């Protein structure tokens, strides 16, 4: 099985290289935004107009003649920028994303090289076209053939993401199934009773971040002190993101190494973290509490956790299966009785029918495991059955 994998490292360019990479990002942003502006005018005339990469790429020689600074940028970087716009248009027309937006300076700056890259793992250096050999902080060995390399700005630092392709032979593992219930008090609870406490990196640094932002608001714009404060804020944001990513990687790796099949709830994180403010005509209720819950959900990084767990299980020959989350927190795992009264508090579950009581997150994980097994059984037999946990209510309806 062919696997595509990205290896991410911190890049360590010198002053000249950092300025050159930043200049390449500016050129790529210019081409992207100018092409988008032109395409928007064409789309305004005809809503059926679709972006064509070939036509956009043919404009580059003329633009290079009018703007000499584009000649200093590697042609691959400009072409890849247009391919990013092509992908954004495709996602829009296939209703997977909103209409493409203009790129802003220092916001998600990145460039990509599809070829011409060399790697020296012994010296911990990578050669980027027109930039030269750049050092990087090696944290793991790179496996496979390099397909492309992306350089990304994160605050004041640069990262390099090396995507490779290689044949993967999953090791033989003992079959093991587990259900996972996601939560705020407990990050993840497994059906075998194991659970992981959240680290909540944003919450931990929230007071310090707010203090720096208030300080920045009082300072004169574009002054030397305001630039210093901006750098401190950028470093703090990077620390928060790195802490969260490190926790998610360690947790997902531990689960993937110990289990071959993992069942999780099919959670719509974007819907769960939507604002409850409402409108002037129909104002929302408990807006402050909902805002705090949204912040906690996003701070946990559930979506990224599911992505990491999915590809790590795939490499080991396992699989991640999502099941319907309906009634998983209301169903008694002992008698199957379904009622909202079974869970009167966030942490405790007590069945009003049989008296069974346990941690609410553990009950949810057990029900997720049962729902996942039921889904697999129905898939193998060809039967059609709701993806909810096996309950008395299900038995009465069928």
Describe the secondary-structure layout.
Blueprint: E1 2-12, H1 15-45, H2 53-57, H3 60-66, H4 75-93, E2 110-113, E3 118-120, E4 125-128, E5 132-137, E6 145-154, E7 157-167, E8 177-182, E9 188-190, E10 195-196, H5 201-218, H6 224-258, E11 261-265, H7 269-272, H8 287-300, H9 302-315, E12 319-323, E13 348-350, E14 357-359, H10 360-381, H11 392-397
Helix pairs in contact: 1-4, 5-6, 6-9
Note down, in words, how this protein is organized.
This is Transposase. The chain is of the alpha+beta class and 398 residues long. The chain has two domains: 2-167, no CATH class; 177-378, no CATH class. Helix content is 44%, strand content 19%. The protein has helices at residues 15-45, 53-57, 60-66, 75-93, 201-218, 224-258, 269-272, 287-300, 302-315, 360-381, 392-397, and strands at residues 2-12, 110-113, 118-120, 125-128, 132-137, 145-154, 157-167, 177-182, 188-190, 195-196, 261-265, 319-323, 348-350, 357-359. It has a seven-stranded antiparallel beta sheet. It has a five-stranded mixed beta sheet with strand order 10-9-8-11-12. A two-stranded antiparallel ribbon has the order 13-14. The radius of gyration is 25 Å and the shape is globular.
